[in-house]
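Recall from the previous lesson that a structure prediction takes nothing but the amino acid sequence as input. Here we apply that procedure to 5'-nucleotidase SurE from Halogranum rubrum. The sequence below is the only information supplied.
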Amino acid sequence: MGTPRILLTNDDGIESVGFRALYDALDEFADVTAVAPAEDKSAVGRAMSHEVDVVEHELGYAIHGTPADCTVAGLEALCPSVDMVVAGCNKGANLGAYVLGRSGTVSAAVEAAFFDVPAMAFSLYVPGGTGDWRDKATDPEDYREATNAASYLAEHALDAGVFEQADYLNVNAPMPADDPAEMVVTAPSTLYDMTAQHENSTVHLVDRVWERMRDGDIPDPEGTDRRAIVDGKISVSPLTAPHTTHHHESLDALAETYRSN
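The prediction returns the following tokens.
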């Protein structure tokens, strides 16, 4: 394979530090075109617009829309001849089965899979602790583990046949430590710990998973994405985009008797 052609998008916005860090890393060996939201569109999932305004940007195109909009606009109109869609690098991890549909970063990769275009989503785990995690990871160097993993996979995954079995990869990386992180293949964790509290006229929705990660209180076993990240490893989950279905005899029986009731 010659120089790979990559459509790069995200959900934090085209001006985010993680996006530029990933663009610069991929630009070392690939033909990269940015098609990314003009503003922060975090956690919008696969929300789709009917039309979007497009502004030319020094890196490609800034879209006044969602990450899924960016994938469709890019693959259908702005840069249709690409080998791969890469989304990221998101500030904040996208871990667990329950977040896959919420994340704009992951959703951009899922959208690409429906075009039969290989895709990868990259996110950075920013630990809690003292201070607000949103105020951390402000330097491109903080994303080094993620950008190194992205460069490695973008250079080798296609020729290795990875996308003959997976539609997209969901990759989460830790912040840099003294030694380079190990890369492990994982499955999304099934841990779910959302809670809600009703107070006066407000319901507070809290995802306790992040608090549990900060305290080291997670039951996730080896082989899951969250366990890998807590252990300081790079998690790579090979995933498929279409929802799966199975034969259900009980549902067959209900369908057969539907008109007789």
